[in-house]
Prior knowledge:
The chain has 236 residues and is α/β, with parallel strands linked by helices. Helices cover 33% and strands 24% of the residues. It contains seven helices and twelve strands.
Amino acid sequence: MKQLIITAAIMLAAMAAQAKTLIVYYSYTNNVERIVDELSKQIDADVIEIEPAEKGLDYAADNYAIGSAQIAAIRENPDVASSYPAIDPVDVDLAQYSTVIIGAPLWWSNMAAPMQTFLFNYGAEMAGKNIGLIVSSASSGISGVEGDAKRLIPDGNFLSPCLWIRSAQTSNAKSMIEEWLKTIDYNNHTSDINNIHASDTATNSVYTLSGIKLLAETNLLAGIYIINGKKTLISK
């Protein structure tokens, strides 16, 4: 029994390491940065900021002409890497994370171009991960940003709804984030393991971690199993 407990503890630690959250964001006017700062106070997560490779650009000049041109280039050839503006190198191992929360502003009805570059480069590595999306805009709806995220992360498990915080609402980000995290059931999505007593498994389908279905559920030894698709620590 002692060996089983030690083994279970080791497996729990390994699974917890895989349940980490990453927040990745781009912010030009600092609205998204303020939102992410508040989000970081409410959840335990690593944070990465996306930075354009070309420095000193005034995106606000000429009615945001630079950003408009970048979005137009992506719309014209969304499957071509050269359509996306260069960003600073990002050092991230996405295999460490089960959940990725993306924070981005809206540009011309689409996701800001630098964030699209990051997702173009890394979206395939987010397959099967929980994806949360937070969007900042002045007033326009965010359906285009949602569409960009799903195009660039086609196999992500998107948590619904996305969080839309208008620029004028940034000061209310704390309460809006709190409510959003409850709505998407964040704590449940980021907890990889249930903990139940063996006697509670009688009406469930129980599998070993190798995928073998067990028939005598009430005689289970303490350990980690798959119950209704979720990793579960069973105690006696």
